[in-house]
Design goal:
109 residues, mainly beta, 4-stranded parallel sheet
Length: 109
């Protein structure tokens, strides 16, 4: 975890894999190549969050969050990909215990 009031990181390639970079105010990442936020990584700012890269910005199965978010790729792509898993189980018992009220709606009434 990297945490601070204002966090600024400048590097060639920036990769956050399953960790947290958080700022109370501003979080700024400036890459001469690419920025990757992977494996349930968290980039979080209480204020402005800015990611600037010459190449790609990848957010794969992770979270980018801020009051104001700015993503800038000068010569690449911005990729935001959500990953999901599916499990098949067999058994007679199952349960779901939400901690807050939940509303579930479906198309068949």
């Amino acid at each position: 975890m990297i945490s601070g009031k204002n966090v600024s990181l400048t590097a060639g390639n920036i990769t956050n894999s399953g960790s947290t970079l958080t700022a109370q105010n501003a979080l700024t990442l400036d890459s001469q190549n690419s920025i990757s936020n992977l494996n349930a990584g968290l980039l979080n700012a209480g204020g402005n969050l800015q990611l600037s890269a010459i190449g790609d910005i990848n957010n794969i199965g992770s979270i980018i969050s801020g009051k104001t978010v700015r993503l800038e790729s000068l010569d690449g792509s911005i990729i935001n990909q959500t990953l999901t898993n599916q499990w098949n189980t067999q058994g007679s018992l199952g349960g779901w215990m939400p901690t807050k009220p939940v509303a579930v709606t479906h198309g068949n009434r």
